[in-house]
Amino acid sequence: MKIDAAVLGGVGFSSFIEGSAKIVNTPYGDVGVYIIELNDKTIAIVPRHSGAVEHVPPHMINYRANIWAIKELGVEKIIATNSVGTMKGHNIGSFVIPDDFIDLTKSRISTFYDKNTIHVDMTEPYCPQISKCLMDTLEKKGLDYTRGTYVCTEGPRFETRAEIKMMSMIGDIVGMTGLPEVVLARELELCYASICTITNQACGLTENKITADEVVVELGTTQDILLEVLTDVIDCIPATRECECMNATQGARL
């Protein structure tokens, strides 16, 4: 069975899923993957936060297992969905297509190469083909979006005012799940791009404290729109890869 693309789903994404998960065995653990048909395309959905417990927090997600499972299924293209806070005053409910990242995580294993050394190039970390499809789709639908730098923190706590003040000088949005996914995908020469939903203003941008409830509520209002976008994006992605993602390890080995 040929699978056209994979979607890495974040908080609230489970509402899109029906039926039982296919269990994919990987060297890093088992992963539950939902295989669905969408507009004559076969899609693999990996919900990041699903596990033996009700909700896996961002710092405990088995990122290596998730990306390896997608590769194991023969999938070459990944669309990640992320909920993020804005550090630049984006409208709540709007979207950001990241074009770069800054990794401020602390304890996550961010490589498959524990013994052999691979230095993959991250000059353009997100697949340009998929990113273009995301932007084209949002433009056609008249949806508010921009590009920007994604800053990934360890979590599960939200950031402090001082941290946001510092990070706003180097990035545009802040989240907890975008890394090390994008790096792991590059090491396996997979195409990876992300669509980020702005769910809240980052700490210090308003007088209100940040709560997990407001994130979930905002995602609930945008999930139908997000599904429509993903459906059109998957139709848009070219069958043949013409990006450099598939050559990521060439010249990278020591």
Topology:
Elements: E1 5-9, E2 22-26, E3 29-38, E4 41-47, H1 63-72, E5 77-86, E6 95-104, H2 128-140, E7 145-153, H3 161-167, E8 173-175, H4 181-187, E9 191-201, H5 212-236
Structural account:
Phosphate binds at residues 48-49, 177. One of its GO terms (molecular function) is S-methyl-5-thioadenosine phosphorylase activity. Keywords: Glycosyltransferase, Purine salvage, Transferase. Helices cover 24% and strands 28% of the residues. By secondary structure, the protein is α/β, with parallel strands linked by helices. It has a single domain (5-247), classed as Nucleoside phosphorylase domain (Rossmann fold, 3-Layer(aba) Sandwich), CATH 3.40.50. A 5-stranded mixed barrel has the order 5-8-7-6-9. A hairpin with a 2-residue loop joins β2 (22-26) and β3 (29-38). It is globular and about 50 Å long. The N and C termini lie far apart (36 Å).
